[in-house]
Design a protein that fits this description.
Oligomer: single chain
Largest sheet: 3 strands, antiparallel
CATH architecture: Orthogonal Bundle
CATH topology: Arc Repressor Mutant, subunit A
Number of helices: 7
Mean pLDDT: 88
CATH class: Mainly Alpha
Number of domains: 1
CATH superfamily: Winged helix-like DNA-binding domain superfamily/Winged helix DNA-binding domain
Helix content: 55-70%
Structural class: mainly alpha
Low-confidence stretches: 146-154
Order of helices and strands: HHEHHEEHHH
Number of strands: 3
Length: about 150
Amino acid sequence: MGVLGRLTRVTRIAERELKALFGEFGLERGEFDVLATLRRAGAPGGMTAGDLARSSMVTSGAVTNRLDRLVAKGYVTRDVDPGNRRSVIVALTPAGRDLIDRAVVAHLENEQRILAALDQDQRDALATTLRTLLLSLGDEADEADGAGEASRAG
């Protein structure tokens, strides 16, 4: 009970800290994830909405809602793929690229602050232990999971 109770409390605190940071940039966590995924992909032509949904491991409906908000804010464009008119290509606007570049730096600093009580060996051991637990529970964690979205945004 002590382990799961502490994991729950850490999650609540971390979520609160992340929400506050993303709010400073006028973003919700899911919007940050979409922008970071597009930035990480680095493709000047963007990504399909389907690729974004698979990358974020959320439903296509959730991605559509996030994209609607990001288009309205001027951070992404959504255009029909000329090579396949059934697909939509999503790309960062210059404003979106600028925002995510600034947000990722702040996000990494925030993560460092949150984890400041742990030295690097402790962080590595905790990441490995949590990954083992997640995999044992059926999670399909990948190699980048120890560092979170920001590491993939780089």
